[in-house]
Write a structure and sequence with these properties.
- The structure is a single chain.
- The strands form eleven sheets. An eight-stranded antiparallel β-barrel has the order 26-27-28-29-30-31-32-33.
- The protein has 668 residues and is of the alpha+beta class.
- The protein is built from 18 helices and 41 strands.
- Helix content is 27%, strand content 32%.
- A hairpin with a 5-residue loop joins strand 15 and strand 16.
- Helix 4 runs antiparallel to helix 5 and helix 12 packs antiparallel against helix 13.
Length: 668
């Protein structure tokens, strides 16, 4: 076994690898960018080395620098994690050339599966069923369009070197093809350095089922059950579970054996995942093979009782597989929910900012949190916005789902938008509980997954007032005379009572409260109604009784701003200060950046007439492209940013005049 390894990654997966390596007595070397100098993985490692500036191209993708550090510090092996260089053939080969063990498959196996089109050919030769489509080397746009017509619509454009939903587009008709191809190629080139595409028939109700495989250098291979990853947004997984519900033993065995056969056909060594599309009629089709450890590997660990990172380390050190196929057993059911900094109510656009407040569920044999951040850390525009992975396990699917909903209710984050509420709605949705799964699940069940806020605004305003009052009192020194009325902090007045005014702003509406403080609580007037309220605040926990109804909520206060949290729901308000959004500073004809990011394409110029729906600007954030489209017909009057420039959330990108207004101006 190795005595020292380098982890060529960051965040949650770097912390995950360090945890197992330390348990095995292996020293760990971390690498980091300037943006990650105070990151959790840096603090956990035994030593750490600076790679370079924040952009991944200047840091985590610097294979030459990483090899140089590994040689200098005496690391015997490199674990690539997932993403970045984990499926980079050149990096795996460089490790081998420099006498460093690559904790992953040989470079030849990565190359064989790194091109989706080449992988399809290998699977075809191995007898694994394939979805109809085009996987050829000729990438001229005219030929691709011709092949698209042969394949039929809807179809899927996929980057041959892609993964994680990047460089992928669903195309519904021939008229959409040209723009979708250009966008997918551009995104693929930016993310992987390779713009080549493959075309596949888009199955309308498929499930995404994948098999975890392991092979050793002695030629042995096993599969460790399967995972269902059907629930996705923008072709990226949101929630995963193992085992996949509703699969027959015969299908599970057929998929597993096909996956091992595929891996052994390319002399695979280490951890890999073979992904299949599983159709409603029970048929399955090879989709791709990921030649690395998957983000969702913990659900497999929970149902098998195996540490897959330990397996990786042992196999990379030349040891045989820890188990043979007949020794692999499955126990219970597990779910993994990916906690992201993103805005589900705005098409899941990624969010950035500081994790000002962070409380996670209590970990146990049933609940696990894999994360690379702590309270106060920054979610940067430069990297994937995943905050953590929440993994739960129980004896069966129903109980595991109940644990997932409870744990998501206990997950509280302030200072940044997240998908926690959305995930809890998903866990509670009846179709999901009934395992009615397919990759279009989210679009199909919008009403269930994006319901109106469940917190009562009136009650929340009362609780917010109590939180502000109680937190202010907690910050005051106790009176020297406990019997003095002046030390009672109740707005006491001699021979009179005083109702304190308070203004709270929620959304765009201001609410006026009148609060009469008493020894046992408050008499609060709000919107013409009176309430008897008592409250105690212990840290971030507010216990409140409103007209005899007792409840507990949690709060995060940032100066005059307050966020109340209860079972995944949030209520935000502000004390005294009016709030203004970006829209208040812009006219109807402006288009603003929906998130922090970079401008990768400007498709219009001043004076150009555009139609509603036309793409004006293309932005990139978290390695994903987002098109800014015209909300109406009009004429571009100004373009404020050029390609390659960074923009902030809310920044005005383009000014668009209505055509009628422009004609009126010309006439005058």
């Amino acid at each position: 076994m190795f005595s020292k390894i380098l982890i060529a990654n960051r965040g949650e997966i770097a912390c995950r690898v360090i945890k197992t390596a330390h348990r095995l007595g292996i020293r760990c070397v971390a690498v980091y960018s300037e943006a990650d100098s105070n990151a959790r993985h840096v603090a956990m490692a035994d030593e750490a080395f600076l790679l370079g500036p924040a952009p991944s191209s200047e840091s985590y993708l610097r294979s030459d620098r990483i090899i140089e550090i590994a040689l200098a510090c005496g690391a015997q092996a490199i674990h690539p994690g997932y993403g970045f260089l984990s499926e980079n053939t050149g990096f795996a080969q460089a490790c081998e050339d420099n006498g460093i063990a690559f904790i992953g498959p040989p470079a030849s196996a990565i190359a064989a599966m790194g091109s989706k089109s080449a992988a399809k050919a290998i699977m075809q030769d191995a007898g694994v069923p394939l979805v109809p489509g085009y996987h050829g080397d000729d990438q001229t746009p005219a030929l691709l369009k011709q092949e698209a017509e042969k394949c039929g619509f809807p179809l899927l454009l996929k980057a041959v070197a892609g993964g994680g939903g990047k460089g992928m587009r669903v195309v519904e008709s021939l008229g959409e093809f040209d723009e979708a191809l250009a966008s997918a190629c551009r995104e693929a080139k930016n993310a992987f350095g390779n713009p080549d595409m493959l075309i596949e028939r888009y199955l309308t109700q498929p499930r995404h089922v994948e098999i975890q495989v392991f092979c050793d250098s002695q030629g042995n291979g096993v599969y460790l059950a399967e995972r269902d990853c059907s629930v996705q947004r923008r072709h990226q997984k949101v929630i995963e579970e193992a085992p996949a519900p509703g699969l027959s033993d015969a299908t599970r065995k057929a998929m597993g054996e096909a996956a091992v056969l595929a891996a052994q056909a390319i002399d695979y060594v280490g951890a890999g995942t073979v992904e299949f599309l599983y159709d409603v009629d029970g048929s399955f089709f090879f989709m791709e093979m990921n030649t690395r450890l998957q983000v969702e590997h913990p659900v497999t660990e929970m149902i098998t009782g195996q540490d897959l990172v330990q397996w990786q380390l042992q196999i990379a050190a030349g040891e045989p597989l820890p188990l043979q196929q007949h020794e692999v057993s499955i126990n219970g059911h597990a779910f993994e929910a990916r906690i992201y900094a993103e805005d589900p109510d705005n098409d899941f656009l990624p969010a950035t900012g500081r994790l000002s407040y962070l409380r996670t569920p209590t970990e146990s044999e049933h609940v696990r949190v894999d994360t690379g951040v702590i309270e106060g850390d920054e979610v940067s525009v430069y990297y994937d916005p995943m905050i953590a992975k929440l993994i739960v396990w129980d004896d069966d699917r129903e109980r595991a789902l109940a644990r997932l909903a409870k744990a998501l209710g206990d997950y509280r984050i302030g200072g940044i938008k997240t998908n926690v509420r959305f995930l809890r709605n998903l866990a509670l949705a009846a179709p999901f509980r009934a395992a009615e799964l397919d990759t279009g699940f989210i679009d199909k069940h919008q009403a269930l997954l994006f319901p109106a806020a469940k917190l009562d605004p009136q009650e929340c305003l009362l609780m917010a007032a109590c939180f502000f009052l109680q937190s202010d009192k907690a910050g005051l020194a106790a009176a020297s005379d406990p019997y003095s009325p002046f030390g009672r902090q109740t707005s006491w007045r001699l021979n009179s009572s005083f109702a304190r005014p308070m203004q709270l702003v929620h959304g765009e509406q201001q609410h006026d409260l009148r609060i009469l403080e008493q020894d046992q609580g408050y008499d609060i007037s709000l919107d013409g109604a009176r309430y008897s309220v008592s409250a105690t605040l212990n840290g971030d926990t507010l216990d409140v009784i409103i007209n005899g109804h007792r409840r507990t909520v949690y709060g995060y206060r940032d100066e005059t701003r307050l966020t109340l949290m209860d079972q995944g729901e949030q209520f935000a308000c502000q004390l005294h200060v009016e709030t203004f959004g970006a829209a208040d500073h812009q006219g109807d004809a402006s288009l603003a950046a929906p998130m922090n990011g970079a401008v990768v394409a400007v498709l219009v110029e001043p004076g150009q007439a555009v139609s509603k729906g036309d793409t004006l600007v293309v932005m990139e954030a978290m390695k994903m492209e987002h098109s800014i489209r015209a909300p109406r017909d009009g004429i571009v009057s100004a373009v404020y940013f050029a390609e390659g420039e960074l923009v902030s959330d809310g920044a005005e990108l383009v000014a668009l005049d209505a055509q009628a207004d422009s004609k009126t101006k010309e006439a005058s």
